[in-house]
Amino acid sequence: MKTDRADILASLRNAGDYVSGQQLCERLGVSRTAVWKVIKQLKEEGYRIESVSNKGYLLVESPEDVLSKEEIVSRLTTKWAGRKLYCYTETGSTNNDAKRCGEEGDPHGTVVVADIQNTGKGRRGRAWKTLPGAALTFTILLRPVFPAERASMITLVMALAVAEAVEAALDGNIGDSAEKAAVGVNEDTAVRIKWPNDIIINRKKVCGILTEMTMTPELDEIQYLVVGVGINVNNESPQEFEEEIRDTATSLRIEKGCRLNRAALLQDVLCRFETHYQTFMETLTMSGLREAYQARLQGLDGEVRVLDPAGEYTGVSRGINDRGELIVERADGERVAVYAGEVSVRGLYGYV
After folding, report:
1. CATH fold of the domain at 69-295
2. Strand 85-91 relative to strand 111-117: parallel, antiparallel, unpaired?
3. Dihedral sign, CA of 242, 245, 247, 253?
4. For residue 4, what pLDDT is reported?
5. Among 276, 348, 290, 281, which Cα is nearest to 321's?
6. What kind and span of H or E run contains 199?
7. The domain 303-347: what is its CATH number?
8. Dihedral angle of Cα 327, 331, 333, 339, to the nearest 10 degrees
9. This prediction's pTM
């Protein structure tokens, strides 16, 4: 009944009015009894559904935050992102789960999402754990056909999608932008991207992104990529974070002052990513997304410290080029293209 549950929930959500039981039966090819059972289950899970004779069923209100497969599927408007979905209450790492999906032949766009993640990967190889109901942790599996040297730009593509969706959520438009026009930068919410893979709100980190690549040895081609995303959504206070990051981390709830629906946020991110990925694939560069990404770049034209294994140096951030590299102007005027896989860039003051 899981597929029927998602389909029935989607039908109710998309109708915006009463839907008769007969319509649901005909549309989904199930019995009236099956429809009634699903409606009863949904009500027990907190969905407020009105049942009126000769009119049918009306979805009045959804639970505040449900991260179930049915809830996610019922919201999806993507063409391929998330159309195959694994949803877990608890897992070790969604990236590791997605790698298994890659090895087992799951298709491009497969998404793994979990409420609780116990052995995720954080900054500098640290373990990253999440609390129940707090974070949105998911990984998307990609099977791209392009040279391996282009793979690092996918992190930037996802960062732009997440930043736009987070800003929409903070502006009260969570999940409303199904057909995803680009979102202009709202200076009040100040959602920024710390190159290449962190999302920042008011100079504190709200999201990290980790892209990992697996090659086909005999062909020296990309077998698959996994792009993992961890967004602090409903953490109530800084005390919920590990002590070492309490001063540098935040959540959407802390910033907005209320709980947010993670399934709606996931739908928004996936829609935006699908759109931006298509733009990227047209040229295999950031040329079509560069302006939007750079408009959100934290520290543009500000001082940065480049932590290069060959030697640290400071300079001024001059934005990104079409390859997604950060252009840093050194004191002597030389402009260096910093590659995401080679160095770590830090601001001179605080986290960013």
Report:
1. BirA Bifunctional Protein; domain 2 (3.30.930)
2. parallel
3. negative
4. 77
5. 290
6. strand 198-201
7. 2.30.30.100
8. -20
9. 0.89
pLDDT tens track for 158-191: 999 999 999 999 998 776 544 444 555 655 557 9
CB of 238 closer than 8 Å to CB of 143: no
3-state secondary structure of 85: strand
Domain 2-61 architecture: Orthogonal Bundle (1.10)
Report pLDDT digits (tens) over 199-257. Answer: 999 989 999 999 999 998 877 899 999 999 999 999 999 889 888 888 999 999 999 99
Query: Is the separation of the CB atoms in 70 and 47 below 8 Å?
Result: no
What is the CA 231 to chain-centroid distance, rounded? 7
Closest CA to 229 of 259, 266, 204: 266
Helix (H) or strand (E) holding 218: none
CA gap 342, 259 in Å, rounded = 38
Which two structure tokens, joined as six digits, stand for 53?
Answer: 């004779």
Distance CA 352, CA 343 (A): 15
> Using an 8 Å Cβ cutoff, are 199 and 193 in contact?
yes
Q: Of 5, 289, 262, 317, which Cα lies nearest the Cα of 157?
A: 289
Query: In sequence order, which residues have a C-beta less than 8 Å from that of residue 232 and are 6 or more positions away?
Result: 134, 135, 205, 206, 207, 241, 249, 250, 251, 252
Q: For the residues 53-76, what does the mean pLDDT come to?
A: 90
- What is the residue extent of each domain of the chain? 2-61, 69-295, 303-347
- What does the alpha-carbon distance between residue 261 and residue 247 come to, in Å, rounded to a whole number? 25
- Amino acid identity, position 245: I
The SS3 assignment for 3 reads helix
Q: How far, in Å, CA of 322 to CA of 83, rounded?
A: 30
Q: State the DSSP string of 97-152.
A: HHHHHHHTTPPTT-EEEEEEESSEE-GGG-EE---TTTEEEEEEEE---S-GGGTT
- Residue 174, classed as helix, strand or coil, is coil
Length of the chain: 352
As a whole number of angstroms, the distance between CA 202 and CA 185 comes to: 13
Question: Helix or strand or coil: residue 207?
Answer: strand
Q: Say if CB 200 and CB 206 are below 8 A apart.
A: yes
CA distance 275 to 26: 33
